[in-house]
Amino acid sequence: MYSQLLTVAALAALATAQNDTMSSNSTQGGSMSLTQLLGATESLSTLTAAVMGVPGLAEMLGSAENITILAPSNEAFEAFMETDAAAALANNDTEAIQALLSYHIINGTYPASAVTETPVFLPTMLNDSMYANVTGGQVVEAVMQEDSVVFYSGLLSNATVTTADQNFTGGVVHIIDSVLTIPQNVSSTAVAAGLSGVAGALTRANLVDAVDSLNDVTIFAPNNSAFQAIGSALPNMTTSMLASILQYHVVNGTVAYSSSLEDGQTVPAMMGGDLRITIVDGDVFVNSARVVMPDVLVANGVVHVIDNVLNPNNTMAMPEPTASMQMPAFSGVTSTDSIDITSGIPTPTSPIGAGPTPAEDAGSEDGGAMTTSAEGAASPMKTGAVGAAALFAGAGMWVNI
Questions:
Q1: Helix H segments across 103-223?
Q2: Among 321, 238, 257, which residue's Cα sits nearest to residue 287?
Q3: Is 335 helix (H, G, I), strand (E, B) or coil?
Q4: Which residues contact 202 (CB under 8 A, 6 or more apart)?
Q5: Which of 113, 133, 371, 374 is deepest in the core (most CB within 10 A)?
Q6: CB contact at 8 A, 277 and 264
Q7: 187 pLDDT above the threshold of 50
Q8: Tens of pLDDT along 288-321?
Q9: Cα–Cα nearest to 46, from 88, 91, 104
Q10: 3-class secondary structure, 247
């Protein structure tokens, strides 16, 4: 990708010169066209080169209306070039580059003043099913933090707006300090987040491909401490028993971001049964599990990390909001120091970014918080196409524990 950007950089410079000569003829109502804006902004020369390097993209953006562009600065692209994601795009994969750029274009015009301390999830132009299985387009999370507008993307990567509200005839541009990360599939995200219990359970239950290829899902993913809390039961679980438990953590057909969850709400889990949402003093619980890391965006929806493994045969388990740790939803179990189902699951080389509301014990067995790391950036990953049928086929009965 870097070589491609260098190759078309001269074209971007030429476009800048052309825009300068045409500005008096092309400006409408005091607003520049997008091409003029990009050409006139020196800190966006790398982005300009990338856009021009994708056939037809500049023309499409030039005619688009009512859009918001999150524009990584030259420094953001320079940092991105040092990540594994850039290395994966080094073969000049135009399709992957277009997917990455499309993820930086939001449908709708959103000035910085529209972003508040309440997270909003804005659909982007990334709607290619090869990279996203979210109806209406993959989203970015926008939230105001410490007087800055911050956008969260895949793997909880965050980008801060450094220059806001650069208006053009089709919408607005916000310059950001890092390149967004396209959300990865569920299994890859689980590994990157250090959720080895989830990754191991999906592998043992033969549900990796099925879960990765669902459309519009919400997944409540237990952290490793939650699996350790029922560790004595894991070695005796059959594949179908484990699959049934996992399916009780999945809501299919609904992407429920944290801002849409309400106290007293119930949502249907796959294979039957309801999940009950409780909100106490801002803390969100699903059945008896506390959400400790909300809104981890994945290719086909959203994952909320929880501190308890849900039990499909104990749907009435209630939370203890004042307790630092929730009681297991399974009876007769004892905790273990390790998780029996994690054999062969790789350890992430770098932790994923800390989310909008960092919480303890979100991913590692020692309860460490996840921290931002440029090394954790991931390249666009194509989604699967297995479907819900395989997920339903993975379980033959409800577990009775």
A1: 186-192, 196-204, 208-212
A2: 321
A3: coil
A4: 186, 187, 190, 208, 211, 246
A5: 133
A6: yes
A7: yes
A8: 999 999 999 999 999 999 999 999 999 999 999 9
A9: 104
A10: helix
Helix (H, G, I), strand (E, B) or coil at 46: helix
| Alpha-helix residue ranges (DSSP H) falling in 299-363 | none
- The helix (H) or strand (E) run that includes residue 49 is helix 45-52
The amino acid sitting at 188 is S
On average, the pLDDT of the chain sits at 83
The per-residue pLDDT for 101 is: 92
Structure tokens at 212: 């990765």
Helix (H, G, I), strand (E, B) or coil at 165: strand
The band of 272, judged by pLDDT with boundaries at 50, 70 and 90, is: confident
**Sheet containing 283-286: which strands, arranged edge to edge?**
250-252, 217-222, 301-306, 289-298, 283-286, 274-280, 266-268
Number of residues in the chain: 401
For residue 344, the surrounding DSSP H or E stretch is none
Residue written as token pair 């918080």: 369
In three-state secondary structure terms, 192 is helix
* Phi and psi, residue 74, nearest 5°: -60, -40
Residue 357: pLDDT over 60: no
Can you read off the two tokens belonging to residue 296?
Answer: 């981890």
Helices 239-247, 196-204: crossing angle, 10 deg rounding? 130
What pLDDT does 375 receive?
43
Give yes or no for residue 35 having a pLDDT over 50: yes
Indicate whether 147 pLDDT > 50.
yes
Tokens 């080094």 correspond to 90
Q: What is the dihedral of CA 67, 88, 142, 269, to 10 degrees?
A: 110
Q: How many Cβ atoms from other residues are within 10 Å of residue 277's Cβ?
A: 18
The CA distance from 296 to 152, in Å, is: 9
Q: State the number of CA atoms in the 13 A half-sphere of 219 facing the CB.
A: 29
For 23, 55, 90, 240, 266, the CA distances from 126, given in Å and listed in that order, are 30, 17, 21, 35, 30
- With tokens 């990390």, the residue in question is 305
Among 143-157, 246-260, 356-370, 372-386, which stretch is predicted with the lowest mean pLDDT? 356-370
103 has a pLDDT exceeding 60: yes
Q: To the nearest whole percent, how much of the chain has pLDDT over 70?
A: 79
Measured CA to CA in angstroms, residue 84 lies from 194, 248, 375, 379 at distances of: 18, 34, 7, 7
